[in-house]
């Protein structure tokens, strides 16, 4: 069963790597070749043939399931224009400062599941199951596409959300039916409202709320940062661990009570009765958590074990594991896009293996061994998914797991029961105990967090390198009698010390990051790194520094920045700066707006220049007479063979000035489009003088400014300039060496579930 489930998983994974939903002629050829091989070898190699059939079934099932999700996408007729829709709020709304985000099941004029944002100071009370008539603007699922960054488009596909959008201010936004019928999410919302008066003032109230109902929206940023820095985030919400522990406790406790009644055990064995209650408790806890995909997975894994006991089908533990894996994949094959899917099944496999080792040791030694084993074995997956980890996470989890499992979670659940029964005193006492356990735990976590060596970062590796790392790790944890540890060490050294991306002297790599409607460029030479602008920041706390720039820099193993240039003070150029200053040591900051930066800066002035690794950097603007956009820092980067001009948000006034005063310095092979392709910039005379072969536009998908302007795009075309746009290409990486090589992230890492561009220019 385990081998069958792994082959089914392999088929699903292979399909998920496709860049189109359709099957190419080559792929059809491979499929028919496999089928022919099965046909002629079935009798002789029956086992292999069955596994190949299961592989093809997994491949086909992922294709069918994906086609069903994509078929539900909203028609283009309803996109990018205000429309009226009628539907129902289907999940707990997330409420923050002047903003509400919620999942809306549209019923008219089409059927779809959309994710909406509603902005305003006096938002209505949004309740699950309420039916609304709303005026909205929807757009195709879209996310920032950058190396090391979070793939929001993949997440939306995994959640089966068909479009995103926002509610427009309109008098016709009305509540049609305040449906109060009970549902899972309505029940969860009632619990949340009941708990709020007990948890709002507690330091870890948001965590306790997450442990009870699986809603993590109330967890503070400080607590999230603390858990992330110590690799304990998996404990802060309902997970397979919590469901397994609670259902296991109920199983053991029920069995113990049942054994006290001799007549009861004669009718129904205590083991079976405990399994009934364990199964029921797992189901109830999963339902309270909204029966989200992670809790579905945990419930399936628990139910396979309990049902095997109830039906007295005592399978080997690995058979039960394989059955659970197969069921999860059949029910929802897109689970493979969840980090939790891989970590949960991987960790369970490690635990199954670990329990067979050191059985005769003291339970404390055994517990420490299991924890260290899990920490070591999960390092490859953590490196793959997060590009970072915590060296001290084994110690952190060794303390955190018992605290969460035996104090925080049980007392939070007991407190919720007391709150529901209106026993306020007992509820308050229970929540206080749960909260205090986390307060004490946080002292240790903060202590570990403050060690400089705690956080490690790993560059974005290839699939082959990650496979080697996983193999090396698995060999390392095998019994020492196999004498393979030396092989594991060799494989590990090959991965850890694999050659990083080399930049030769006199060359440069310019990366235009996909930060939506904004600008953020990373310039690297052989030994230096410069960041030109930092994208936007928003009142909610979301910013491009945390979301895009820092993950990219970490993926390239950049430890510090030689220089940051903030071209001017607009939010879409300076908004992501503060997180970067906290995360990296920055040697120097150049800017035209020193008053807007809380750090030591150097005023950006024309005539400044420096040379890094035989690459020339020149500041061409601003002049003392310019203000606002026209005072933007303009940077030209020149190698021996090529040059690129970073023009920020300059307008025609500055363009005219540069033509008059810096004409001989303007010609460049590549131009970063002035002001995101706005009509205020890119004059014919400026383009004539710069005479670029390529222009790169950094703009947001369907942005409200309609950048780039059609007239400007036509102007570029009239000048025979090749056009690239981050809204279409994602991250754009330009190698300035003997030749110019341009890589487009959406093209290089295309997947069938991602938004497709009308035009993607060839390299």
Keywords:
single chain, 763 residues, alpha/beta, OB fold (Dihydrolipoamide Acetyltransferase, E2P), 8-stranded mixed beta sheet, 7-stranded mixed beta sheet, 27 helices, 26 strands, 47% helix, globular, disordered C terminus
Contiguous runs where pLDDT drops below 50 for at least 5 residues: 759-763
Strand content: 15-25%
Helix content: 40-55%
Q: In total, how many beta strands?
A: 26
Task: State the separation between the terminal residues, measured CA to CA.
Answer: 46 Å
Query: Structural class, from helix and strand content?
Result: alpha/beta
CA radius of gyration is 29 Å
Number of discrete domains: 5
The mean pLDDT is 87
Main sheet strand line-up:
17-16-14-12-11-10-25-26
Shape summary: globular
Describe this structure in words.
With 763 residues, this protein is of the alpha/beta class. The strands form five sheets. It has an eight-stranded mixed β-sheet. Helix 20 packs across helix 22. The chain is globular. The two termini are 46 Å apart. Mean pLDDT is 87; it is low at 759-763.
In short:
47% of the residues lie in helices and 16% in strands. The chain has 763 residues and is of the alpha/beta class.
What's the structural blueprint in terms of helices and strands?
Layout: H1 2-16, H2 25-41, H3 46-71, E1 82-89, E2 94-96, E3 99-108, E4 112-119, E5 131-139, H4 152-158, E6 163-167, E7 174-177, H5 184-199, H6 205-213, H7 221-229, H8 240-259, H9 262-267, H10 270-288, H11 293-310, H12 317-331, H13 339-355, H14 363-377, H15 379-386, E8 388-390, H16 393-420, H17 424-449, E9 455-457, H18 463-477, H19 485-496, E10 508-512, E11 521-524, E12 529-532, H20 544-555, E13 560-561, E14 563-566, H21 571-574, H22 577-583, E15 585-586, E16 589-591, E17 602-603, E18 609-612, E19 615-621, E20 634-638, E21 643-646, H23 652-661, E22 670-672, H24 684-690, E23 694-697, H25 710-718, E24 722-725, H26 726-729, E25 732-736, E26 740-744, H27 745-748
Parallel strand pairs: 4-6, 12-14, 13-15, 14-16, 16-17, 21-22, 22-23, 23-24
Antiparallel strand pairs: 1-3, 1-5, 2-3, 3-4, 5-6, 5-7, 8-9, 10-11, 10-25, 11-12, 18-19, 19-20, 20-21, 25-26
Helix pairs in contact: 1-3, 1-12, 2-3, 5-6, 6-16, 8-10, 8-11, 10-11, 11-12, 12-13, 13-14, 14-16, 15-18, 16-17, 18-19, 20-22
């Amino acid at each position: 069963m385990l081998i069958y489930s792994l082959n089914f998983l392999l088929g699903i994974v292979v399909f998920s790597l496709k860049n189109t939903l359709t099957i190419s002629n080559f792929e059809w050829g491979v499929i028919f070749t496999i089928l022919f091989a099965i046909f002629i070898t079935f009798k002789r190699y029956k086992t292999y043939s069955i596994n190949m059939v299961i592989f093809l079934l997994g491949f086909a099932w992922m294709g069918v399931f994906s086609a069903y999700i994509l078929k539900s996408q909203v028609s283009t007729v309803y996109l990018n224009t205000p429309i009226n829709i009628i539907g129902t709020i289907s999940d707990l709304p997330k409420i923050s400062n002047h903003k509400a985000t919620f999942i809306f099941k549209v019923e008219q004029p089409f059927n779809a599941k959309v994710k909406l944002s509603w902005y305003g100071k006096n938002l209505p009370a949004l309740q699950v199951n309420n039916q609304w008539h709303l005026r909205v603007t929807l757009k195709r699922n879209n996310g920032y596409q950058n190396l090391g960054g979070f793939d929001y488009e993949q997440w939306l596909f995994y959640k089966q959300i068909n479009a995103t959008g926002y509610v427009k201010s309109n008098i016709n936004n009305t509540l049609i039916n305040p449906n109060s019928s009970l549902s899972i999410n309505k029940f969860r919302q009632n619990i949340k409202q009941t708990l709020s008066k007990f948890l709002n003032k507690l330091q870890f109230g948001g965590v306790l709320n997450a442990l009870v109902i699986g809603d993590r929206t109330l967890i503070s940023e400080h607590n999230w940062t603390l858990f992330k820095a110590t690799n304990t985030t998996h404990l802060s919400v309902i997970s397979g661990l919590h469901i397994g522990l609670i259902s296991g406790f109920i199983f053991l406790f029920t069995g113990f009570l049942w054994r006290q009644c001799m007549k009861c055990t004669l009718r129904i064995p205590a083991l079976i009765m405990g399994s009934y209650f364990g199964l029921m408790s797992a189901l109830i806890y999963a339902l309270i958590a909204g029966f989200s995909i992670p809790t579905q997975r945990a419930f399936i894994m628990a139910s396979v074990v309990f049902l095997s006991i109830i039906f007295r089908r005592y399978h080997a533990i690995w058979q039960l594991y394989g059955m659970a894996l197969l069921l999860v994949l059949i029910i929802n094959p897109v689970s493979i896009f969840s980090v939790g899917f891989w970590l949960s099944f991987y960790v369970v496999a490690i635990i199954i293996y670990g329990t067979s080792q050191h059985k005769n040791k003291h339970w404390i030694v055994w517990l420490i061994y299991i924890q260290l084993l899990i920490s070591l074995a999960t390092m490859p997956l953590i490196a793959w998914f997060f590009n970072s980890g915590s060296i001290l996470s084994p110690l952190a989890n060794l303390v955190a797991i018992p605290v969460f499992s035996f104090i925080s979670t049980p007392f939070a659940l007991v407190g919720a029961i007391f709150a529901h029964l209106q026993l306020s005193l007992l509820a308050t006492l229970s929540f206080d105990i749960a909260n205090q356990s986390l307060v004490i735990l946080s002292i240790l976590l903060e202590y570990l967090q403050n060690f400089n060596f705690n956080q490690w970062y790993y560059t974005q590796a290839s699939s082959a390198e990650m496979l080697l790392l996983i193999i090396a790790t698995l060999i390392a944890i095998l019994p020492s009698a196999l004498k393979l540890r030396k092989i594991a060490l060799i494989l590990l050294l090959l991965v850890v010390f694999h050659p990083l991306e080399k930049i030769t002297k006199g060359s440069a790599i310019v990366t235009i990051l996909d930060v939506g409607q904004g600008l953020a460029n990373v310039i690297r030479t052989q030994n230096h790194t410069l960041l030109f602008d930092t994208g936007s920041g928003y009142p909610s706390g979301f910013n491009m520094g945390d979301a895009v720039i820092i993950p990219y820099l970490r993926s390239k193993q950049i430890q510090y920045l030689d220089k940051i240039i903030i071209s001017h003070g607009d939010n879409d150029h300076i908004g992501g700066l503060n997180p970067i200053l906290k995360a990296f040591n920055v040697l120097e900051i150049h800017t035209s707006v020193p008053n807007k930066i809380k750090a030591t800066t150097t005023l950006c002035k024309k005539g400044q220049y420096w040379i890094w690794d035989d690459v020339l950097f020149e500041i061409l603007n601003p002049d003392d007479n310019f203000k606002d956009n026209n005072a933007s820092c303009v940077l030209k980067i020149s190698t021996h063979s090529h040059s690129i001009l970073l023009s920020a948000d300059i307008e025609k006034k500055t363009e005219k000035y540069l033509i008059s005063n810096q004409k001989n310095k303007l010609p460049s092979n590549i131009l970063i489009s002035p002001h995101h392709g706005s009509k205020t910039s890119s004059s014919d005379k400026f383009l004539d003088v710069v005479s670029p072969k390529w222009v790169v536009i950094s703009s947001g998908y369907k942005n409200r400014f309609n950048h780039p302007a059609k007239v400007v795009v036509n102007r570029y075309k009239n000048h025979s300039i090749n056009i690239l746009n981050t809204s279409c290409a994602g991250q754009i990486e330009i190698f300035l060496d003997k030749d110019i090589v341009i890589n487009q992230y959406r093209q290089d890492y295309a997947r069938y579930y991602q938004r497709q561009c009308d035009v993607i220019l060839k390299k």
